[in-house]
């Protein structure tokens, strides 16, 4: 569980919440006496089951939208940090092109750029579904 949901604890919380809600429904149904004809009870159960399925799907979509929103915000923050560091290194580079610090920062910027590119490609693939 930690490996799968480490980056998104909200998702596991939604899953646990849905499981607990289903457990409460089952316990409530088991403790309630059956009223009315059997057909009416079965029909109500089918409608209730469909409603729960729809609620579960809506919850999953909301969770997915929240995760996507978090991913977009993260990418925006990473892009802003990259832009700031890039502009800073450009101004420093005009004064001293051979500095070890500048070379180290350029390597860090390249790694950030690679990360940004990878995450954009991954998010594009996710959004295309």
TrEMBL record:
Gene Ontology molecular function, alphabetical: DNA-binding transcription factor activity
Domain STAT transcription factor all-alpha: from-to ranges: 55-122
Sorted UniProt keywords: SH2 domain
One Gene Ontology biological process: signal transduction
Protein's UniProt name: STAT4 protein
Lineage: Eukaryota, Metazoa, Chordata, Craniata, Vertebrata
């Amino acid at each position: 569980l930690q490996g799968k949901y480490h980056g998104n604890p909200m998702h596991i919380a939604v899953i646990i919440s849905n499981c607990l809600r289903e457990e409460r429904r089952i316990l409530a149904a088991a403790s309630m006496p059956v009223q009315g004809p059997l057909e009416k009870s079965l029909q109500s159960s089918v409608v209730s089951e469909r409603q729960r399925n729809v609620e579960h799907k809506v919850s999953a979509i909301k969770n997915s939208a929240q995760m996507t929103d978090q991913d977009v915000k993260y990418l925006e923050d990473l892009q802003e940090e990259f832009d700031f560091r890039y502009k800073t290194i450009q101004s420093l580079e005009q004064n001293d092109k051979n500095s070890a610090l500048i070379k180290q920062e350029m390597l860090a910027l390249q790694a950030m750029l690679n990360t940004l590119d990878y995450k954009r490609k991954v998010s594009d693939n996710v959004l295309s579904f």
